[in-house]
């Protein structure tokens, strides 16, 4: 019994020392207090350490059928279907993430567009619930960050479009008008509702041919490449609710929440119809995480939330990180925040991004933090969320 007591004391002693070692210096504390929301800040000596994990439960929420077209990410032939999947009546979320990769025998301008065909027996009615469409660009970070921001802000459209049985229409008229140059990314993020079964295709063609016209003449669907791109198919999860199992207490030092790492939070799976295989969405891009956690201040401190590019040194593709979240109110107003907000990306430690600062309750009682997170397109994962105790005085 005495030995057990000593072990318990040793454990809490180590935890206390760890928390003390991770306490911010007065200078860094002031950086967090004086910085604007979304700003890139520097926290030398703080990032990349072992923090207390925020344990959580994940619940699959009801949501739309989720489709993503990102394999092959680079469409290397002048004309082909890169994605084709059947959808059922109801809501559909579609993420288009494809690049004009044609360079043989020469680099040429292309059109990358998404179409839906009515495979039912009655007229299909389509209404857009959320809409996000960016001009093609080689600035993938900008597209990924602004694409999420537009998606979160979208209020949909009351317009109802009709498609006769056997016919097809373009899902996004902007994609029909875009000129996609070599190596430019086409990024579209949509949520719509239909009342007939259909078939969604993403294809590349010439600038003069409409998507529905090209669909009639293209017979080949490109095989998945698997060397690049997150994946393609219809996936069984579109929305998660993440509920923290432990209460964050500022007296215990920093705590870290990690989702979309492929280990603790595995990649969602689905079905890819051209091969008939189970598909894996490496990155969970386009999946929405509704996060809820409790925190309290036993020592009178507030709680700052920061993120950083933990993968910066892995390879050349991970040199920057940019994200967008819908954040609860704290010191700053709640709402959509682009991360970072004062430049395109954050690079590597000691750089971090300040997301929000939460003041302590006057009586030290528990408070709830809620926010929406989705893995940011073009960025390497995970993007850790670190809750840092901060002296508000």
From TrEMBL:
Show which residues constitute the signal peptide.
1-21
- Name the keywords, alphabetized: Signal
Q: Name its species.
A: Rufibacter quisquiliarum
Q: What is the lineage of its organism?
A: Bacteria, Pseudomonadati, Bacteroidota, Cytophagia, Cytophagales
Q: Please state what the protein is called.
A: Copper amine oxidase
